[in-house]
Amino acid sequence: MRIHTKAVIFFSFHCSITAFSQEKVLDTTKATTIQEVVITGQFEPQSLRKSVHNIRVISRLDIQNLAANNLGDVLNQYLNITVRPSSNTGRSTISMFGLDAQYFKILIDNVPLVNEGGMGNNVDLSQINLNEVEQIEIIEGSMGVTHGANAVSGILNIITKKSSEFKWEINAFAQEETVGKEYAAFDEGKHIQGWRVSHSINDNWYASIGINRNDFQGFLNNQKGKEYSVNDFSRGYSWLPKEQINSTASIAYKKHNFRAYYKFEYLDENIDFYNSTVQSGFSTALGAFKFSDDKRNLTNRFYHNLNVVGSVFSGIVYNVSVSHQKQQREIEDFKYRILTDEEYNLSKKKDQSMEVLYSTGTLGDLIKNNKIDLQVGYEAVNNQGFSLIEGENNTTKTIRKRLENYDFFAISEIKLTDKFSLRPGARYSLQSRFDNQYAISLGARQLFEKGYEMRGSIGKSFRTPTFEELFTEMVFSGHNYIGNENLVPETSISYEASLKKNTYFNSGTELSNNLIVSFMDIKDRIDMALVGLDQGGAQINQYINVSKYNMWNITSSNQIRVDNLNFSLGVSFVGISQLIDNGQFKTTDDYLYSLNLNSSVSYTVPKWNTVFSAYYKYTGKQQQYVVGQSDYILSEIEPYNLLDLTVRKSFLDRKLEATVGARNLFNIKDINQSRMNESGGHTVGSQLLLAYGTSYFLKLAYNLNF
Q1: Phi, psi of 14 (to 5 degrees)
Q2: CA distance readout (Å), 300 to 12, 271, 386, 623
Q3: Where are the alpha helices (DSSP H) in 463-598?
Q4: How does pLDDT run across 516-528, given as a tens digit for each residue?
Q5: 210-234 in b/e burial notation, b at 16+ Cβ within 10 A?
Q6: CA 390/CA 397 separation, integer angstroms
Q7: 416 Cβ neighbours under 8 A, 6+ residues apart
Q8: Mean pLDDT across the chain
Q9: Distances (CA, A) of 499 to 169, 386, 424, 496
Q10: How far apart are CA 175 and CA 193, in angstroms?
């Protein structure tokens, strides 16, 4: 409760400053500041102020100042978002409000992005190329009406570039980065290169093509690499080496009210796993030799999307997207002779894939009235999933299943006055495997004098079970983990209220304060639980609908722009209650709390063509339940701080740009997770992977626009 009070006081303090200075404040409606234009969840692109939703915007300039390589580098700095990396798989996924990536949807130009396990959810952030990004828009909370299943904790929409003010844009860059203290020209560190060419062919046509290569040589830490031949479990890497090549091409056409846009993307990823166990072998040809059983994960993704926007029948606006996507992961097993650098006995198998046919479309401006907008739409999803699973007696078998849904939705925006709007909406989803689902929402926005804005929303949404939850099977060494084809979708309801104040001073200073309060309730949450014993007495664990989850959150975000200085400060206080039942014992439903802070500052020196930036984030102590032998045990994850510094400078009339900086200046690697032991005695702990320490980078970019 004390934190709640501080957040309100902090917001009130900023508002009192603006009220005290009212004589020097410009009328908000007359301010000449360029308004941010947002697209996500809107009938048409419009200013952020007019949106009924609370939308966070990450601009292209923010991405440049961070020198971000992928989406994870960007999101690491934002409140209520935690990036969860895995050194064993090379993946990085998102967690929001304690909910994992299955509840958060990632889209590119309003189309959910496929991964080998699903569509839109559980996306690997490290696989998302930022080279063509115009801006990123984030909406927290239930978005089931506009974006369908699994948009429970929020959505992230990546808006790509589709036009240019120049005839030609030619961009090329190279970035060298240490991985902790490790760096070498070829064998250590990160080595990133990319180029992009775009051409405005004439007033109607625009085309672009580009390619990025990200060569991550892994992080040794205390390991000795792939050439190490002593069997003391020191071989291999703490973070796996990974190489990604991402190619994109797009073409756009516009004439009058008609626009068409097609984008193609191909991702090729190679992750190397080097076994820590070294074995001894002998052959008549080679004599004694050292070898290891190694493997690599080979992932590729094809992405096609066609979007068409136009008008028919006296101004009715249509917007249709059709997409075909496929992501597939193969596993290549091989034996590696360490001293002679030879691979042999190679075998490759398809491990997991998802192929999707997707289409969404809307009809807008159906009512010719300045006070009411009505939009109706559809979404059609056809997922063809594949998984290789482990069965009994070390056997493997394949699962091929199709999941489909066909949705219809309607959204209206009612302008009761010039300053008060309502936004009701509803969606009905026809499901091929589950009972049909629905989502409803109601949003409201009220604009007041002196720059105050108030918003509120309530939304009901749903999450459908994943391919893994439905069909997985792992049986080995007395363990039995299986999916459940009888699972039902989770349902959720969320509430949000916010108060925002924008102030513009005659001096040019801009001040923005936003206070948000939200609550979320999830029912029928899916968890793994003990459901019985097999014939040999081994436990059978299965996914079932058993848990429930509640979350409330208070967030205060504040930003001030003074001449060439831009400063922001945010605080978030979150309480999470969840009842977990594994069939033997269950947790309490007590609330567990965490505090998060973030801040950023950038200062531009026009005379030097230089921008200095700093990004800070504090993640407070987190508590969670972990399963023990006879009870759930409360575990604590220690707090940690992240700090990045960058300097970006332009040369040669902005044709050449250099960015230098450091990430993770507090040198965070692993963080402690402690808990009381089963007997209630001393505290025991473990290490959670988070980062690989302080790294330094240099990026050189060449931009030729004419």
Answers
A1: -65, -40
A2: 51, 12, 15, 37
A3: 467-471
A4: 999 999 999 998 8
A5: bbbbbbbbbbbbebbbbebbeeeee
A6: 7
A7: 371, 422
A8: 89
A9: 41, 46, 20, 11
A10: 6
Is residue 678 within 8 Å of residue 671, measured between CB atoms? no
Enumerate the β-bridge partners of residue 559.
512, 568
Query: DSSP for 157-207?
Result: EEEEP---SSSEEEEEEEEEE-BTTB--SSSSSEEEEEEEEEEE-SSSEEE
Residue type, 299: T
pLDDT band of 680, cuts 50, 70, 90:
low
DSSP per residue, 1-33: -HHHHHHHHHHHHHHHHHHHTGGGBPPGGG--P
Distance separating alpha carbons of residues 488 and 619, to the nearest angstrom: 34
DSSP state string for 366-420: -S--SSEEEEEEEEEEEEEEEEEEE-GGG-EEEEEEEEEEEEEEEEEEEESSSSE
Q: Supply the pTM of this predicted model.
A: 0.90
Q: How far is CA 188 from CA 42, 179, 221, 577, 665, in A?
A: 45, 7, 12, 43, 20
> Which among 213, 149, 143, 146 is positioned nearest to 175, based on CA atoms?
213
Structure token digits, residue 312: 């028919």
Q: What spatial distance separates the first Cα and last Cα of the chain, rounded to whole Å?
A: 57
What is the distance between the alpha carbons of residues 598 and 615, in angstroms, rounded to a whole number? 8
The answer to whether 129 and 244 have CB atoms below 8 angstroms apart is: no
Closest CA to 374 of 341, 419, 423, 421: 423
Residue type present at position 228: Y
Q: Which residues contact 64 (CB under 8 A, 6 or more apart)?
A: 648, 659
What H or E segment, with its residue span, contains residue 100? none
Backbone dihedral region for residue 191 (phi beyond 0: left; psi -120 to 50: alpha; all else: beta): beta
Whose CA is closest to 623, among 584, 651, 588?
588
Q: Specify the pLDDT at position 683.
A: 62
Note whether 579 and 548 are within 8 A (CB). yes
Q: What local confidence, expressed as pLDDT, does residue 29 receive?
A: 32
Q: How many helices (H) and strands (E) does the chain have?
A: 5, 40
Measure the CA–CA gap between 701 and 65, rounded to whole angstroms.
13
pLDDT in tens, 88-101: 778 889 888 888 89
Contact indicator for 309, 317 with CB cutoff of 8 Å: yes
